[in-house]
Amino acid sequence: MSEAATRPERRAVAAYLGLALGDALGATVEFMTPAEIRATHGIHQKIVGGGWLRLKAGQVTDDTTMALALGEAILGAGGRVEAQAVAQAFDAWMRAKPVDIGNTVRRGLLHYRHSGQTQVPLDEHAAGNGALMRMLPAVLATLNADETEMQRACLVQAHITHHNPLSDAAILCVARMLRRALAGEDLPSLYAVEVLPFLQAHPVFVARKREENPSGYVVDTLRAVLQALFDNHDFETTLIDVVNRGGDADTTGAITGMLAGALYGEAALPARWLRALDPVVRERCVRQAVGLVGVY
């Protein structure tokens, strides 16, 4: 692999494209069980659209479009993650009638719209995965900052809609994993340095069996993501593994895709998937990734 291909900005591109690819691949089988996926698709491994949202082939869902909204807000603020700018961007995104929107996200944005407040109250029932799926731009924008600033940025965007300790813990774990992967660290290093201490501190995320049909609960989501990531050793098989577990497959696909993209780089992204991805989305992901890494 060339030195250029391993630079953080190129890994950032792979992470952003990985998010979109995982979203587009997983959306087809969202809310299906593994048995239903096998009966319908065998092994689901093609970006073909469809699913309950009746998407076009290569179309993405709220996982990617919320990340893109966050990225535009950060770039528009000169690389800073500012709560007001991000809340306005998310509100504009919702007003544009996205193809899908989670209930917690909707409630949070309505709270902002009606109150002007950029943080929802702490809520023990808001441990969804909606703030985790979109947080990649906050990590990219703070890649050269200290970890405290990265954590602040990730939680600023999260608390506009999700203010929950489990959601926060998952976000910060994935953010640290992304930062290390973008710097070129490998899978065993991520497990030893980040994942093992995280699981020891937060044992609720430890899976006792294979996580199948994961819900939108952030614990189920992250269990499935971590299993798929550490049970496989390349981008394609990792993504195929996680989406064939069904459940909230667009989101598990998106989160796994951003991590696997950062780990394995652009060359590992299947060309057939990239060709199938909506070209406008593909271009926006690349442009934002390069821009965000360069702004700090």
Account of the 3D structure:
By secondary structure, this protein is mainly alpha-helical. The chain has a single domain, classed as Orthogonal Bundle (ADP-ribosylglycohydrolase fold), CATH 1.10.4080. Helix content is 63%, strand content 0%. It has 15 helices and no strands. Helix 2 packs antiparallel against helix 13, helix 4 runs parallel beside helix 15 and helix 9 runs antiparallel to helix 10. It is globular, with a radius of gyration of 17 Å. The relative contact order is 0.21. The model has no long low-confidence stretch (mean pLDDT 96).
Rounded mean pLDDT score:
96
CATH architectural label: Orthogonal Bundle
H and E string: HHHHHHHHHHHHHHH
Helix count? 15
* Regions with little confidence, pLDDT below 50 for 5+ residues: none
CATH-assigned homologous superfamily: ADP-ribosylation/Crystallin J1
Shape: globular
What CATH calls the topology is ADP-ribosylglycohydrolase fold
Rg computed from alpha carbons, rounded to a whole number of angstroms = 17 Å
